[in-house]
Amino acid sequence: MQGFLKDSIEFLPILLQGLRLTLIVTAGSLVLSTALGLLWALMRVSGVPILAGISKTFVNTIRGIPIIVQLFYIYFVLPDLGISLTAVQAAIIGLGIAYSAYQSENFRAGIEAIDRGQVEAAQTIGMGWGLTMRRVILPQAFKIVLPPYGNIMIMMLKDSSQASTITVAELALQGKLIASSTFQNTTVFTLVALLYLCMSIPLILLVGHLERRFGLR
Amino acid sequence: MPMIELDNVHKSFGANRVIRGITTHVSKGEVVCIIGPSGSGKSTILRCINGLEGYDSGSIRFEGIPVNRTAKSITAVRTQVSMVFQRFNLFPHRTALENVIEGPIFVKREPRADAQAHGRLLLERVGLADKVGAHPHELSGGQQQRVAIARALAMRPKAILFDEPTSALDPELVGDVLAVMRSLADEGMTMVVVTHEIGFAREVADRVLFLDGGVIAEEGPAAEILTDPRNPRTQDFLRRVLKPL
Questions:
Q1: What ipTM did this prediction achieve?
Q2: How many CB atoms sit inside 10 A of residue A64's CB?
Q3: What is the value of pTM for the model shown?
Q4: Sheet with strand B190-194: strands edge to edge
Q5: A125 vs B90: CB contact, 8 Å cut-off?
Q6: What does the record say about its membrane topology (chain A) (predicted)?
Q7: Four-residue CA torsion sign, B145, B151, B154, B159
């Protein structure tokens, strides 16, 4: 135990650097995937066949390709096309796009769960499509999508470790590097696991709080 | 010129021909009740008037503006022709007052303070001055429907369409809603009401349309149609509605 504490003190500063990158990648891709996911979902329910078709094709394509392959594509293939990104940028964009497909399906389910009568009520007071979405549908859909959204946040936090495959020295990669140079596998990976857990728990609590706050009745 | 004109309107849902040539008109200040058996096209024709449903052929005009649900002009029609639904369709995430002022503020761009003052007045008028801050789930069906009527009135409409406004209510709550509707009629509001409340139609309507199989089977002054119908189908329908046992 004493050894574990001593090693921990030694390893933690390096792991915390990785944790910082994990948070950056997670936060960045969360924002990007939420914005893109909402865009796909709105296109899908827009009633405009071409927009709905583009959205559907995109979402199904993205869902059908492993995240790790998407990351490789963005980090290793795009430079051939003259677009070079830093590893962190590539990770944020890759995870953001990959997750936007799941976000979009969640948002769409929430939007489609709202009673048709709500749209009609909005229409009869003269609201157009945008106003109906903003004032009537999305505020109600928000409550429905919240629990699965929380789930997605936690999955993203963990999947940010896939950024290690394109050289982002986030928490998991830092752990692996320390472990392979010190052979303190138990200590290092226990710490890494605990640090992920420490980040997940606040997210779980936050979602629980929001669900109570917005009263799922 | 009549306010609302329907000319030979047809509408099908797939192979189901719901409206098969309806021609009628509603003048300013007139109260028209539409009665008829279920599936006769009552609600559909009402929903065509403000473009909630499209129609296949014929024409519908409101004050001369063609009602075309895909045209820009539909907003102008909808802000002048309000609608009250069977299932109220209040916005559950907003209070009674917020429901009422939503259209005036976001569609008609009235200043918030004016909209709120008008909204409070309207809620008071439908007997809900004390429910301004209540959410729909805290209100009874009858109260919700009266909020919905206040929401329709807040647009300062020229006409209001009522789609079976009391059919989803417990019997003891029907009276309050009908009383509000009667007072609107007394003030000269133009109203088209799809209803099963024959008593209300007899007392308040200027004219009654009896729909059957997607056509107007009989139409005329309320007293005439409801007490002395000519068409055997109207006679049969009224017998069933008035003496169900």
A1: 0.92
A2: 8
A3: 0.87
A4: B81-84, B159-163, B190-194, B31-35, B207-212, B215-221
A5: no
A6: Multi-pass membrane protein
A7: negative
